[in-house]
Amino acid sequence: MAKPSPAASRQQAKPVEDDRNAAVPQDDERLDLFKFAPFRLNRLAAEVSAALAVEYRERYGLDIPEWRVLATLGFRREACSAQYVAACTRTHKSTISRAVTSLLERRLIERVENTEDRREFRLRLTRKGKTLYEELIPRLQQREREIMACLSADERRTFDRLIGKIEASLDLIQTSEEADAKQAY
Amino acid sequence: MAKPSPAASRQQAKPVEDDRNAAVPQDDERLDLFKFAPFRLNRLAAEVSAALAVEYRERYGLDIPEWRVLATLGFRREACSAQYVAACTRTHKSTISRAVTSLLERRLIERVENTEDRREFRLRLTRKGKTLYEELIPRLQQREREIMACLSADERRTFDRLIGKIEASLDLIQTSEEADAKQAY
DNA sequence: GCCAGATAGTCTCACCTGCAACTATTCTAA
DNA sequence: TTAGAATAGTTGCAGGTGAGACTATCTGGC
What we know:
Chain A is mostly helical.
């Protein structure tokens, strides 16, 4: 895995004669992926997710959709529908449906028929699910703290605020209540 | 798509009698997904990606790996290997391989044998690829500007700096040269 | 009451992607 | 020199995921 030195393989990157220099984009037309916010956000999110996945996947055998269902149900005091979870987490309803099926089989959640609307079911954590939730959450919060430890308290607040502004401009902000109104997930 | 009012569907979320209140997590043990940085980053990245995808997918029929290959080759002055692109973009080498195949078929990139190391190929944009690149990049940059327009210039700089700190702490920072040394992609 | 349209949830299908095996080639060290 | 390890790139396979069809149910207008 470890390579003797970056230089060893860097030889491959040395310039190759290019007879088309005329068509090479000018500096101001080029785009440095490393400075491109969408790319950086993607990469950062993927890396942070991977760091957390160690906890919920390797330790508890959960995948991301399953963990999102648990997180939503664990946070809310009341039982709620799969549709609600999908809207909250911005995850496709078919993905949530599969996660719910899996969690039901593992007896981590249970569902009760909604007599007022028999199309939907109310989901909630079982005792077993709550135990897992209470065990898992502190681990994830610890991971988050470790990852964000590179920022000062002040920077962290600023970061949250700026993320919030971008979310807002993308219409990503939803309260628990508003999430109920979201469709398409 | 539009629903009469959030309240219309919110009825579903009203509390259900729960005979297990004793096991409900306490406030400080719960985790609000909406305030959890990893979740927010994921959601934000997905949303930003979706906003950009309109440009490269619908307009040019490119998927994310293909666009990343183009972006890497377009930014660099010299031809470089698939391995290099994979390391740069943190994308799995098999994914890059498929993107390269597709781009070769579309004559957007070309590859030349590396006589110094015949295991690898040097990739570079064709004239057609450069034309597409120069057409696409301004559109993507415009999208990025639109998305980030909610931040002031000062906030934008701060945001970049904070993202940079997190990237650094996750060892995500690489210069073009360092990327050559990365394995596993 | 009844029908058209909307909604919750499930399922199939197609696609995408990572893993790991594989080939070809290069490097390393005896 | 040469065998074994490492590397670049490709491909088969399996698992995950979104789109959209489908069923059951609900809502609103007539």
